[in-house]
Design goal:
Elements lengths: L13 H5 L10 H14 L7 E9 L1 H8 L1 H18 L5 E4 L4 E6 L5 H16 L2 E3 L2 E3 L2 E9 L6 H18 L4 E3 L2 H23 L2 E10 L5 E12 L3 E3 L1 H10 L3 H16 L7 E5 L10 H12 L6 E6 H6 L1 H13 L3 E7 L5 H7 L4 E4 L1 H4 L6 H17 L2 E4 L5 H10 L3 E3 L9 H20 L1
Helix pairs in contact: 3-4, 9-10, 10-12
Length: 449
């Protein structure tokens, strides 16, 4: 059985319709649960393994937006036909959700075997789809789980497959992950961090730390980047590399960012007026049309001059929804907020983005800076970026500077700004204020001398 349903008379009874997806002709999630439930009961006395999987189409929404919903439906029908044709006699494939499919292999008994099957499905789906006079391409990510014990239910198996799919998505598109017990522990830890982070944001316990940005020619501090830092009484210090992706994925990033921006602007009010504050916007904030209003509301409440604020965005954030990002950027620039493109050189179409968007500043990714002293290609790339920015009238900051040699070389090349541990690690508001006072005292001593 391949998951398609038909009767000899050309009619379907009510039960059959309730278990069928009307767009693709495949079974739906109810048919899938029904079939797996039945298989578990059949193997209750002798629980021989079987495999299930969830297949999610990567980036289907942009295809829908580009070609239209009718073309999107047509592609889903073609996906269903390809998957149905790939199933063997005992297997089942259903449309599980909007752009998600599920499959059942009753006669697959090992992780290696289901991974091979899933990879084959991904390859089948990767061939181009004809959409009128154009073609579209798709990739897919797959999460699989195996039935081993009579204690497992369909819901448990599906949850495990969802956990594996989550890991497949995080590892990059077009991959297969089979569930392991280690993933379950990792998923539980993510949930613990998520719940603790929700409490921390609600209680205002996430703090901004500030890393200096300097003028490479004079070595004078000209601004600071605000970075979120979080200490939990049970978890201890949680790295932003851990909690920021969780905040993004679980829908906490908006309230978290608003909290950190409010605290950061309150602290930065006490800095010299010629110093700017740099703040990062996440990809999900660039698709939320309330983002601009939220930022302006925070600035109004804290009394922070918008002209002293720089917003950093990444190319990944721009690519998620370019039209939405452009609208938000325009709203911010209209009130004097400057906009910086972060991590330049790591995206797929950075030059195109520079043409489409007007940026005030560009930040060279630390990957190029770290190898500037011993890697000629990195040196040439940095020189090219600096020449391009000069032509476009954009300021430049090099990230990840860790020693004097790198700073001096970048200054020789004409790079205006620098940031990195060599100039200072991120510090809390009180320590940053002390840093500024000491810097001003040092400048006064130099003038007297």
């Amino acid at each position: 059985m391949n998951g398609f349903t038909a009767s000899g008379s050309g009619t379907r009874d009510t039960t059959d319709l309730a278990l069928t997806d009307p767009l693709t002709g495949l079974g739906n999630h109810r048919r899938f649960f029904d079939k797996v439930d039945r298989l578990i009961r059949e193997r209750a006395d002798d629980p021989a393994p079987f495999a299930i999987g969830l297949l999610d189409l990567d980036g289907f929404k942009p295809i829908n937006d580009l070609f239209g919903r009718k073309a999107g439906d047509f592609i889903l029908q073609q996906v269903a036909l390809r998957l149905g044709a790939a199933m063997d006699q005992n297997a089942l494939v259903v449309r599980f959700g909007a752009d998600e499919f599920a499959f059942l292999y009753p006669m697959v008994f090992s992780e290696e075997a289901v991974a091979r099957k899933a990879q084959m499905l991904i390859e089948i789906l990767s061939a181009p789809y004809d959409v009128g006079e154009r073609t579209a391409r798709l990739s897919a990510s797959v999460g699989c789980s195996l039935f081993f014990s009579g204690d497992e239910t369909t819901e448990v198996l599906v949850n495990k497959a969802e956990t594996a799919l989550y890991h497949a998505k995080r590892n990059g598109r077009g991959g297969v992950v089979v569930y392991t017990r280690e993933m379950e522990e990792a998923a539980k830890r993510v949930t613990r961090i998520e719940q603790a982070l929700r409490r921390a944001v609600s209680a205002g316990e996430v703090e901004p730390h500030f890393q200096p940005i300097v003028d490479l020619k004079t070595r004078r501090t000209i601004g600071f980047e605000a970075l979120a830092r979080w200490y939990d009484r049970d978890l201890g210090h949680v790295s932003p590399a851990t909690f920021i992706p969780i905040a993004e994925e679980r829908g906490i990033i908006g309230p978290l960012a608003q909290l950190v921006l409010r605290k950061a602007t309150e602290a930065a009010r006490n800095w010299p007026q010629d110093m700017f504050l740099s703040f990062n916007l996440s990809p999900s904030q660039l698709v939320d049309q309330n983002t601009g209003l939220q930022i302006l509301s925070i600035l109004s409440r804290t009394g922070f001059d918008p002209r002293r604020l720089e917003i950093e965005i990444t190319e990944t954030g721009l690519m998620t929804d370019p039209a939405s990002a452009e609208k938000i950027v325009e709203d911010l620039r209209r009130v004097g907020i400057r906009v910086s493109l972060d991590d330049f050189g790591t995206g797929q179409s950075s030059l195109g983005r520079l043409r489409e968007f007007h940026f005030d500043k560009l930040k060279i990714d630390r990957a190029f800076v770290s190898s500037i002293m011993d890697d000629k290609p990195s040196e040439h790339i940095i020189r090219a970026i600096l020449a391009m920015c000069e032509g476009l009238g954009m300021d430049v900051v090099a990230e990840g500077i860790e020693d004097e040699r790198q700073a001096d070389r970048l200054n020789q090349f004409g790079c205006g700004g620098g940031q990195g541990y060599y100039f200072g690690k991120p510090a809390n508001a009180e320590a940053t204020l002390g840093y500024l006072r000491e810097s001003m005292r040092g400048a006064q001593r130099m003038r007297v001398a």
